[in-house]
User: What shape does this take?
Amino acid sequence: MNIVDILALLVQVTAHAQALAQIIQKARDEGRTELTPEEVAVVRKMATDSDARLEAALAR
Amino acid sequence: MFQTILTYLWERRTTVLGYVVTALGIMATSDLFTETQIKWFLLVNGILTAILGHYNNRQNPPQGPVDRQGGSTRVGMLLILALVSAVILFGCAGFPTPRSYSERIASAYAGVAITNDTATILLNADTISKAEASQVLKQTREAMGVIDAARDLGPSVGEDRLALSLVILKSAQDFMCKNRPENPNCQFLTQRVQP
Assistant: This one.
């Protein structure tokens, strides 16, 4: 495991964490306690995209 | 008058930056800013400090023999360190604490994404085998299905499904990392994003 791999993960994880944090923060700033189905769908897409990346890595 | 004040502040720029950072730090710890604002403030502060330090070094080069090549290398290293620190700072922020049902559903999905991406990177680095990565993918897909069901059922009857999905997700993370507790990726995964 080299520094590039570690940084790659950090960047990826950071992107997920930031996307989720922004969605939750935006909802709270608007006074909402629940996320809309569209907002949940955005986070769900992150999961399906990561599924596709892992599947592609397995196929190589 | 205004120009005089600006000149006075510019001539004491490092001290002024220090006072501003201290004042903003006190305000930040008094819950005057949101978590996101604090993170951006820290990032901007780090970059500003690096730029100011670089500028000061150019204006007032160190006394005695100066290794210009070494100086440039040091500045480059400092900038890299600043960037790495910023990435780690943002990464270490982890997830906001989810409160409502839909926030917990979204966090579970994000947990799936991070588990999958960790498996991808470990697989690409030959740290885990294809068989292990396949097993992780199988479990995260199972977790996804259960999270979908919990989302569709809603908070009144979906709590059990949501709890089950987190158990499956934790099982996938444990499977991937149980024999690699010293691996930095596994440490990050288990310490920051355990469901």
